[in-house]
Amino acid sequence: SSGINAEWPLRPGILTQAAMNTRPTERLDQLAEAKRRPDGPFREPEWPVCKKAMKAQSTERTRELSRSKGLVEGFQGNRHVMWNVSKSAKQAVATRRVEELSVPIQRESMDHVQFNPDVFKVSETAKKAKCSVRTEELAQPISRK
Q1: What is the DSSP string of 11-53?
Q2: How confident is the model at residue 58 (pLDDT cuts 50, 70, 90)?
């Protein structure tokens, strides 16, 4: 025997007799206890403030920094999330083309595709296609020095 039990777990979810008879250590019992926390507020809601702090005046620069910048010209606020749907929109009927476009493309799962050698075959017309001058220009690698 190599020390590894190939049949373990014998039955998942069922405890062994050894596990049921074991006792936790003192440290494990200590870790299992709920943490003790004091009740109530941890400090008084009011605390002393020195007279100098109560009489302090902010500087002009602090007041300047505290002012909001405001909104830029042309800013439009968020639209309301909910709005009334017009009667014509409620009665609209999609065209045949829109219905056709709304149907998802049905592709075979990759489990089936990997056994089909022609699945990614490029059509003859696609092989004969010519790209535009701009596409060819963009396809050139950038020369960096």
Answers
A1: STT---HHHHH----HHHHHHHSPPP---S-SS-S-----HHH
A2: very high
Distances in whole angstroms, Cα of residue 52 to Cα of each of 46, 56, 57, 68, 79: 17, 6, 10, 28, 48
Dist. CA 116–CA 110, nearest whole Å: 10
User: For residues 59-78, b (16+ Cβ closer than 10 Å) or e, as one string?
Assistant: eeeeeeeeeeeeeeeeeeee
Which residues have a Cβ under 8 Å from the Cβ of 102 and sit 6 or more positions away? 94
pLDDT tens digits, residue range 67-122?
Answer: 998 889 999 888 877 888 899 999 999 999 999 999 988 877 777 666 667 777 88
Q: Are 94 and 102 in contact (CB under 8 A)?
A: yes
Query: Contact, 119 vs 113, CB < 8 A?
Result: yes
**Chain centre to alpha carbon of residue 130:** 41
